[in-house]
Design brief:
Elements (H helix, E strand, L loop, with lengths): L13 E4 L6 E2 L1 H14 L6 H7 L5 H9 L4 H17 L5 E2 L3 H10 L3 E5 L4 H10 L8 E3 L12 H10 L6 E5 L2 H9 L3 E5 L5 H7 L3 E3 L7 H11 L8 H8 L4
Parallel strand pairs: 1-4, 1-6, 4-5, 6-7, 7-8
Antiparallel strand pairs: 2-3
Helix pairs in contact: 1-4
Length: about 250
């Protein structure tokens, strides 16, 4: 169990969550919203296209992928149109099972929480507010705060800076390959939620542990699982194994 009375080098001090697919089950709604939006503009959309969209990229990157070079006003205008389709499906968006209990679990242990999402600030804030989740987070970092989206590690570096914790004292929770790589690139251990992506792909991307959802999930279980990945013979990078030996005592 984490000691509440002291904070040593390597103690878990902050958990940084992605938003879509991690704390809220929003991927089905996003998938339909992007499909309707793009088809409405004459784009033919494949399943691979939809998988690309859900891999944690910034909206501007997605739009330029389909439409080529766009000005900032065009990106804003297209983004608003896409959000209109998303709002139509918002009623089906719910917190991921067990995540509210996990928030309480972390709060009781005085572990700060942050969001690091590629979504825009406007959509992030409106989504968290509508689901009454905003108050859980000390820091919210969005795609508007960084020049490059995931898998670039900048968003996780910014989240650590704003939380006031070092990467070795942080944990990222992701659901996309690009997000796992972003966390790893920032030097942060990563747990992945296997929703739209397979557990095998998430592990291959560098996830230290994979869960289906947060039901029954705890820091104790997390510590045990991560220590298993650091046993001799595991695929874990030796440098990460050394860091884990100091994590949470």
């Amino acid at each position: 169990m984490i000691s509440h009375g002291s904070r040593r080098k390597g103690d878990l001090r902050g958990v940084i969550f992605d938003m879509d697919g991690v704390i809220i089950d929003s991927h089905p709604a996003h998938r339909r919203a992007w499909q309707k939006f793009l088809e409405n503009l004459g784009q033919k959309i494949s399943e691979d296209d939809l998988d690309y969209i859900l891999d944690g990229r910034k909206r501007s990157e997605i739009l330029r992928h389909f439409f080529g070079e766009l000005s900032e006003p065009e990106i804003v205008a297209y983004g608003r149109r896409k959000d209109e389709f998303f709002q139509q499906a918002f009623l089906e968006v719910r917190p991921v099972p067990g995540v509210l209990e996990f928030f309480d679990h972390l709060r009781r242990r005085k572990i700060a929480m942050a969001i690091a999402t590629s979504a825009s600030k406007a959509r992030t804030c409106s989504t968290l507010d509508r689901l009454q989740l905003t108050s859980h987070f000390k820091v919210i970092v969005t795609g508007d705060d960084v020049a490059e989206g995931k898998p670039d590690p900048a968003i996780y570096r910014v989240a650590c800076q704003r939380l006031g914790v070092s990467p070795e004292n942080a944990l990222a929770i992701e659901d996309a390959v690009s997000g796992v790589r972003a966390a790893n690139g920032a030097g942060i251990r990563c747990v992945a939620v296997a929703g739209h992506e397979s557990a095998a792909k998430l592990r291959d991307a560098g996830a230290d542990h994979v869960i289906e959802n947060f039901v029954g999930f705890s820091v104790t279980e997390l510590r045990t699982a991560l220590r298993r990945t650091d046993q001799p013979g595991s695929r874990r990078d030796p440098r990460k194994r050394f860091a884990m030996n100091h994590l949470w005592g």
